[in-house]
Amino acid sequence: MAASKAFDEIAASYDLIFTNTTIGQAQRRSAWEEIDRNFHAGQRILELNCGTGVDATHLARRGVRVVACDYSPGMIGVARQRAALSEIPGRIDFRVLATEKIGELRNEGPFDGVLSNFSGLNCIADLTLVAQDLAQMVRSGGKAILCLFGRFCLWETVWYLARGDFQRAVRRVAGSALSSRISQRSEVEVWYHSVAKLKKVFSPQFRLVKWKGLGVVVPPSYLSALAQKHSRLSYFASEIDPWLGACPGLRAIADHTLLIFERVER
Questions:
Q1: pTM above 0.85, yes or no
Q2: Is the pLDDT of residue 58 over 90?
Q3: Distances (CA, A) of 103 to 109, 133, 136, 219
Q4: What are the chain's domains?
């Protein structure tokens, strides 16, 4: 699987280039506000595209049991190392498994909820089968928290228009497959799904109860150097971004969109 190899290549450096950056930390804190509000100690959560295990470890520290999946063996390797250094024995079960094959865990449900953070689902063109599999694996009333790249990012559009790069400035709007470079040697295909499309794909088994933007005034991660240069402004942006991301209208121009679905009664 080409995408798996691409993420294997950046597994060792992923935390350096995103997780531990000012932008990465700001966007993750905003996501954790919703994650912590909906997932609680004693629950068992299924995580898709868990990456280096940052969210799984965070949940495990709060007493949540997590079955954390990713199709990149390299990412899972880093995630297992992270968990081993944390005092959370037995709370995380890591699996090398592609999201498209998540139905293989159907007999291990029901789960109390499902999490997919920071754009793993943007690597899948059609999420219909994924939604159907999850509907059979999440208990009634359970939450599905999904964070994806937004369909329109004002920061990105302004940044590239200012540099005369019209193609990149509007690349998200069409929603069609685009090649995104994630390392010096590898690219992956990315699809930008609209909130309306995601709502349709996950219904009627899931009901959209809330959505917010992550990165309204906090810029995309590829502008980390800019954020570091203007650290005071970056701090202020990170403080007000969760509030702005909850505002109708403003939430639609964010770098990421976080959606909270609820599994309806079976």
A1: yes
A2: yes
A3: 10, 5, 9, 35
A4: 2-263 (3.40.50.150)
